[in-house]
Design brief:
13 strands, 0% helix, mainly beta, four-stranded antiparallel sheet
Length: 171
C-alpha cells in the first residue's frame, strides 16, 4: 500500500482513494566496522489527519525485522514522529545490523503523508594502518660531523606495529 515516486514515499492511490495504511522498510544497514549507532533523521510532509511513524528494527540474527524493545530504545514501540532521535544507547555487539520501518496512515482518503528522506547515521571504527615505516629526528643537535653536518641527539628509523602504534623509549 506504498508508492515511491519522484523521490517521495506515499500511500498508494490517488486523491480520494489513498490507502488508509502502508508500511515501508529500508534496506539493512550493516557497517563493516561499526563503532556506534548515532541518530535517525527523517523529513516528511504530514498533513492533517495523516501520520508517519518511524521504528527501528534489528536484523542482526535474521532477515526478518525484529522491533527493538522499548526497554532498549524508549519510544520505539509507539514510533517516532518526523525529526530526529538518538540511537546512542544501542549496544553495537547486540545490534550490528538495523532496518528502519515507516508506517504511513491517513483517516482521509483525499490526503496522504509523504516521506521525503531518512538517514540512519553511525560511526565506523577506526581502521588501523599497520607496518608504517618512518624516521624520527630530534630538533636538538649535539654537534657536527667533520663535514659540518649536524649530529642529532635522536635519529632513528621505526615501523609501527599491527595496530598502527609504536612505543619509543628513552626520548
Amino acid at each position: 500500500n506504498i508508492t515511491v515516486s519522484g523521490g517521495m514515499v506515499r500511500l498508494s492511490g490517488l486523491s480520494g482513494t489513498y490507502s488508509a495504511l502502508g508500511t515501508l522498510f529500508s534496506s539493512p544497514v550493516t557497517p563493516a566496522t561499526l563503532s556506534s549507532w548515532d541518530t535517525v533523521l527523517y523529513q516528511a510532509n504530514v498533513p492533517l489527519n495523516t501520520s508517519i511513524l518511524v521504528r527501528v528494527y534489528d536484523v542482526t540474527s535474521s532477515s526478518t525485522p525484529t522491533l527493538i524493545p522499548e526497554a532498549v530504545l524508549p519510544g520505539n514501540s509507539a514510533g517516532f514522529i518526523p525529526g530526529h532521535f538518538s540511537l546512542k544507547t544501542l549496544d553495537t555487539s547486540v545490534y550490528a545490523s538495523l532496518v528502519l520501518g515507516a508506517t504511513l496512515t491517513t483517516s482521509n482518503p483525499a490526503v496522504t503523508p509523504e516521506l521525503s528522506s531518512w538517514i540512519l547515521a553511525y560511526t565506523e571504527s577506526q581502521t588501523y594502518i599497520a607496518s608504517v615505516p618512518f624516521s624520527l629526528t630530534s630538533a636538538k643537535t649535539i654537534g657536527t660531523t667533520l663535514s659540518a653536518l649536524p649530529v642529532y641527539k635522536y635519529q632513528q628509523s621505526h615501523v609501527t606495529d599491527g595496530t598502527g602504534d609504536i612505543k619509543i623509549s628513552d626520548l
